[in-house]
Structure formats: C-alpha cells, structure tokens
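Today's session is about reading a structure prediction critically. Students often jump straight to the picture, but the first step is always the sequence itself: look for stretches that repeat, for charged clusters, for runs of hydrophobic residues. Only then move on to the predicted structure, which in these notes is written as discrete structure tokens rather than atom positions. Here is the chain we will use throughout the hour.
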Amino acid sequence: MPTAPVRLRTRSAAFTCLALLLGCPPLAAETVPLKETKLIIEHNATDRDTGFQAFVDSEGWQRLELIGPQGVVLRFEGKGELGELGLTELFFETVEPENAAKPIAELLEDLPAGTYTFKGRAMADGEAGGEILGTAQLSHEIPAGPPLLAPPANATVPVAEVVLRWGAVTQTIAGRPIEIVAYQLIVERKTDPHPTMIGKWGLSAYLPPTTTALALPAGLLAPGTDYEWEVLAIAANGNQTLCSSRFRTQ
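Below is the predicted structure for this chain, in token form.
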C-alpha cells in the first residue's frame, strides 16, 4: 500500500534528508549573530514606576530565548506558516509596578545585573539557519529624571514658537555619577490616532547630551489642543528615566 508523501517544513530540512540519503554528512549549522540586543531599565520619575525593556533585531528567527544569571526567563516561538516565514525585530516591555507597591530594589531582584544571552533558531522564508546568538549587559544603575523647566505644568502656550526646556542629568537615582549619552524628547497630542494606525500624533527626537532645549517646528501644534511632553535621560548603560508634563495651546 503506497504511503502518503511527507512534507518537509523547510527547504533546509529537505537538503539535510537528501544528504543523508546520498550518504553525505549534513553540514554543521553556523552560528548567526543577532544584529542588535538590548536589555534596559526604564524608570518614570513623574509617575514613580519602573520596569524592564528589551529589543532584538536579526535577519530572521523562528525561536528565541532570553537566558540570564538565573536561567531562561523568556521564550518566544513562531508556529505554523508564521514560524516558517520567520520574525526579525522584537520589542517588549514588562509591567511597570508603582514604586510604592514594589520598591525598585525589590523589582531589580527579578532580573539581576549581569550578562543576558539571546539564543534561538534562525529562520527566513523557509530557510532554516543555525543558532542565533547575542548578548546584552543589564546594569542596575538608573539615571535620575531630567527636571522639566518650561513651559510650566498645565500652562497655556501659543501655537507657534514654543520652546521646551529641561535640566541636565549627571547622577543616578542614588546620587552616584552617571554618563548621559542622549535625551529623547516626545510630544504627543492627547487625541486618539486612527484605530488601524501604529503610533500616536506627535514628535519624537533623540538629541545629544549637550542639548537641553528644543524649539518645536512650525505646524506641529494645533490650536486649542492638549499635549503631553516628556524627556528621557538615556545613560551609557542603556537605562533611561523620564519626566513628563502637560500643556495646552491657545
């Protein structure tokens, strides 16, 4: 009785089977380095909450694990046709408990400082590769928040020629010296975007650490509208702390 043909899930699996049938040893899978691997802490000095964030970029993967000093802490895997197609970028952030409910020192016990390894299986459009690999260093040194200087909280401002100002950060939340490599300024209109749109109305800019003010471009602000703005101080270790405020246009 004839048997049904077996469908191989990937082209690389087909080549491996062919090599075995011909008596050839399969080629050893190569290690594919991840393009980017980041694991950081984000602290909100205004709302007083804290959490973890991570980012990975690659040419394609089907399975990915995050391994820390205490073992595997996270696992992602594509299934079925999506798993065979492969994924590339991945960003995630954890829940950010309020510091009053879960103090920062207690939160940091969840992910100890040290080296974390991103490891998994490469996959790109049905072509399975070798092992994907990358590392990230997690530091527990958290920068202080940048004080927002102008405009004052809940101020009413003109539609044009608005300058946002903040103070420089030089220390951690514990008062130790820290190097700031950039500030990120975010201005968001407090209205919902289109339901199918990824993102929000507004502006986001990464600025050098010597910059502590920015004039908003003409045409960004609409009259009679509420806005929220925040500045993140980004440290050399990747950790970042934000302060936020609001204003309304005339």
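Discussion point for the tutorial: The longest strand covers residues 127-138.
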